[in-house]
Structure to design on (901 residues):
């Protein structure tokens, strides 16, 4: 089912598109004058960058769902945790430039009458520490969660529901002011990173390029995993978990490794997302966001990686356009997309692109798998 | 002050010696001197005239009309004129030359006290009880004589006890002998509520030692009692929350538990039920306002039909194609839920819709110091009724038999001539319809908005998964356990943290028992 080459044809096209984007988008933005018809306006650069971070999140979801059969309805939690980690660093970067001009504490802590920085904010002044936390916090949460869940053989729908409960619990937790994470308002009013203001054209272009780079690296990592022998076992777990276990593989360990990697990827995506949109708040934990990420993957094509990224970009482009032009229609369109894709496009857009024969073969095989389960 | 005392003495003496003749009282009220008016008010209160209470309250609003030598009249708020002496409507034009009784703050106070005294003697036991309660709170030593008189005349046990406690409260503020005060502390402690606690805590530092120690132990007893009461109240609220969860989840227990279909649009079925209630009330208001009190009785079957029909449509159009693929069902139904939300938002607008509560559901029930609102009580009863009705349908009807047969072994059921696809549609319709009925109940306690369902969907899944899939009893136990646990956690952890703890506990519980509290056993489990 999966090609054994690290980078197949679709992969080359995907990476080429990414490289082209890295060159063209900042180039057309920075080098062309504003009145040139090919000029990309500055507001568009972070928007496109945001799509790329969504694409990275979609890759993370596809890695566990498409190749290991774990439908996570809580990946938004890892995304948001990564975002919060970098958001905390950006808050510390504000320094005394806040409204209260307190050199020690961010504004919202002054507002909460805090006297000193809470322990869990220590170290976030230091960028490498924050960057480490972007990986460690989602990774640790995923490890603990996965350790228990996979060991107790919580599978399928049950796992999906408890991942949803996980992100819902975090949503509630981050809404609390006692968390000292900005509560309802979240973290915002960021000024700069490494001393460079976030609003400058150069910074926006760099963040865009960084997002594209992260997406490319994430893709290569995923390809590396799924084309390796390890990846073959993952697919086996997806298709016949019990049989794989009876063959002697420690299914839970395979699942745990890929689950933690996926969570870290989602964390990186969140960390790149936050400086580009300028805010992180508890709303990012809402279960609906996580489910939306799943639909990006479904639209693009589950288990194709490239499709996941493509789906994320396309759906979000449609969202930006529809919520602007026809706000009433967006939820109908998104809802309809869910239904149409699950009913008629089980392999997503990538399935359409591939030859119709292989789609037929795939769906008949799926049916064959589905039948005995009745 | 002295005058007031005189007045109250007069009040106290009234039982012994009938005060002045009515006309003398009216003349006094017609005086220009406040002293005379005040005495007149006291006289009127003790006159025994049936209209005295009404006339006194009329005096406060300037509706009591008097003139020297003429019969006094008062106007009811409706505008009819009543003769105070006879309590009968006065002849037209009888109010010519009459003036309202002059009122200042002193008179107002006198009138208020007089009315209080009158209600202590009211023929209505509940009015007397209320009056005794207000005396307890006011603990004005000057009401003591009137209270004594009322005590002497009182027959009703409850009112008598309340009056004794009121007297005890007053005793504690006076310089009564120590033994009396200790006894009074005991009486006040009998109340065992916040008011008694406030009174005992407020005892002056100069109180005798015996009184103080009696008060201290009484305070402790009340606090223990209140803490227990608070726990009981938490449990009662928990049962109430649990029954809300049960209502929201029991439909899901059918679609998810019995059919194995993950219906993310379940919350929207609840929402549709709530909007059906709104529509039913709206139509009744326009076409049959007389039926408004029964609007909920009409809304329940209507909501069942609306949500049930939508459920059948969803099953026929979408879910039918996705059997055996639970994760895809989940995504498709989530899409449907988004569309339903947006459809309702487009039709009814994004803001909350007003659903009125019938009179018979408003108000509250007072049970040994526990306060339960009637609508909460009704929801508990409704939830149980729905639950047992469903059990009956599943256990005793042909449909139920067929549903269980299809659940246990689809192929065998099909071979026995059961039309499995029809049963699927009906089961899904049944589950959705029950969700719709839940919506009727939730419209009474929650905001009817397009997002109504979103607030319940995760909780409902938690209940079903916790209770065990495919088992309605598990749903009942799960809902009540989660509800009570949530409310018991709240006082310690706060509402939000309590909920988080509960979610984490359920996540951990699922690790321990992946198939819930009451797991199904048998070979069809893995299907």
């Amino acid at each position: 089912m999966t090609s054994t080459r690290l980078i197949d044809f679709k992969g080359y096209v995907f990476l080429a598109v990414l490289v082209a984007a890295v060159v063209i988008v900042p180039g057309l933005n920075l080098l062309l004058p504003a009145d040139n018809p090919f000029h990309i306006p500055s507001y568009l650069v972070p928007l496109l960058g945001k799509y790329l971070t969504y694409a990275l999140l979609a890759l993370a979801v596809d890695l566990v769902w498409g190749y290991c059969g774990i439908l996570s309805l809580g990946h938004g939690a890892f995304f948001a945790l990564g975002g919060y980690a970098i958001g905390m660093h950006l808050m510390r970067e504000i320094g005394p430039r806040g409204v209260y001009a307190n050199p020690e504490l961010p504004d919202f802590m002054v507002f909460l009458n805090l006297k000193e920085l809470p322990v869990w904010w220590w170290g976030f002044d230091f960028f490498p520490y924050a960057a480490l936390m972007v990986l460690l916090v989602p990774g640790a949460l995923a490890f603990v969660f996965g350790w228990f869940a996979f060991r107790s053989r919580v599978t399928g729908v049950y796992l999906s529901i408890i991942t949803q409960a996980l992100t819902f619990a975090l949503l509630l937790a981050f809404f609390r002011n006692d968390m000292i994470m900005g509560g309802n308002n979240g973290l915002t009013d960021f000024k700069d990173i490494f001393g460079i203001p976030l609003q400058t054209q150069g910074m926006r272009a760099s963040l865009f390029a960084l997002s594209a780079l992260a997406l490319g690296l994430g893709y290569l990592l995923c390809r590396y995993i799924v084309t390796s022998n390890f990846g073959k076992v993952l697919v086996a777990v997806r298709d016949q978990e019990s049989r794989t276990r009876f063959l002697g593989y420690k299914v839970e360990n395979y699942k745990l490794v890929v689950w933690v990697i996926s969570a870290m990827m989602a964390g990186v995506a969140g960390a790149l997302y936050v400086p580009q949109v300028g805010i992180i708040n508890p709303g990012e934990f809402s279960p609906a966001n996580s489910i939306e990420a799943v639909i990006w993957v479904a639209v693009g094509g589950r288990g194709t990686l490239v499709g996941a990224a493509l789906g994320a970009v396309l759906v979000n482009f449609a969202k930006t356009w529809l919520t602007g032009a026809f706000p009433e229609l967006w939820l109908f369109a998104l809802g309809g997309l869910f239904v149409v894709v699950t009913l008629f496009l089980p392999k997503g857009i990538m399935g359409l692109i591939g030859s119709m024969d292989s789609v037929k073969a795939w769906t008949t095989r799926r049916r064959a798998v589905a039948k005995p389960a009745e | 002050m002295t005058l007031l005392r005189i007045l109250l003495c007069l009040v106290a003496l009234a039982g012994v010696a009938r005060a002045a003749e009515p006309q003398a009282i009216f003349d006094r009220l017609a005086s220009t001197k406040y002293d005379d008016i005040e005495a007149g008010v006291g006289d009127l209160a003790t006159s025994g005239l049936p209209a005295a209470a009404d006339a006194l309250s009329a005096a406060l609003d300037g509706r009591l009309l008097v003139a020297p030598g003429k019969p006094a009249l008062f106007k009811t708020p409706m505008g009819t004129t009543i003769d105070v002496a006879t309590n009968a409507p006065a002849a037209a034009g009888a109010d010519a030359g009459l003036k309202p009784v002059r009122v200042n703050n002193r008179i107002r106070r006198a009138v208020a006290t007089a009315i209080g005294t009158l209600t202590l003697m009211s023929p209505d036991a509940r009015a007397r009880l209320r009056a005794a309660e207000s005396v307890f709170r006011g603990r004005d030593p000057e009401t003591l004589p009137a209270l004594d008189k009322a005590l002497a005349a009182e027959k009703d046990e409850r009112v008598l006890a309340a009056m004794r406690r009121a007297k005890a409260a007053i005793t504690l503020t006076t310089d009564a002998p120590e033994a009396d005060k200790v006894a009074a502390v005991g009486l006040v402690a009998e109340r065992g509520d916040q008011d008694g606690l406030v009174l005992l805590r407020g005892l002056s530092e100069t109180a005798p030692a015996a009184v103080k120690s009696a008060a201290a132990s009484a305070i402790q007893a009340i606090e223990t009692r209140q803490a227990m009461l608070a726990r009981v109240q938490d449990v009662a609220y928990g049962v109430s929350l649990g029954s809300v969860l049960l209502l929201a989840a029991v439909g899901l227990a059918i679609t998810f538990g019995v059919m194995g279909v993950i219906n993310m649009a379940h919350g929207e079925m609840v929402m549709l039920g709530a909007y059906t209630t709104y529509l039913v009330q709206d139509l009744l208001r326009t076409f049959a306002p007389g039926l408004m009190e029964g609007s909920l009785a009409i809304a329940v079957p209507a909501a069942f039909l609306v949500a049930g029909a939508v459920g059948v449509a969803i099953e026929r159009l979408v879910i039918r194609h996705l059997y055996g693929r639970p994760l895809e069902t989940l995504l498709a139904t989530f899409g449907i839920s988004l569309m339903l939300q947006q459809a309702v938002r487009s039709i009814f607008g994004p803001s909350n819709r007003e659903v009125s509560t019938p009179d018979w559901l408003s108000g509250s029930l007072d049970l040994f110091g526990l306060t339960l609102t009637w609508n909460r009580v009704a929801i508990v009863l409704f939830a149980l009724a729905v639950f047992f009705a469903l059990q009956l349908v599943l256990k005793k009807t042909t449909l139920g038999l067929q549903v269980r047969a299809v659940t246990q072994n689809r192929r065998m059921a099909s071979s026995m001539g059961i039309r499995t696809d029809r049963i699927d549609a009906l089961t899904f319709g049944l589950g959705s319809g029950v969700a719709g009925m839940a919506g009727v109940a939730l419209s009474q306690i929650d905001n009817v908005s397009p997002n109504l369902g979103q607030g319940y969907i995760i909780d409902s899944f938690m209940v079903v998964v916790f209770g065990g899939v495919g088992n309605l009893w598990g749903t009942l136990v799960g809902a009540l356990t989660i509800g009570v646990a949530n409310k018991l956690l709240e006082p310690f952890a706060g509402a939000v943290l309590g909920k988080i703890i509960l979610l984490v506990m359920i996540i951990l519980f699922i690790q321990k028992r992946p198939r819930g509290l009451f797991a199904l056993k048998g070979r069809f489990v893995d299907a």
User: Anything to note?
Assistant: DSSP finds 15 helices and four strands in chain A. Residues 187 and 280 of chain A are 5 Å apart (CA to CA).
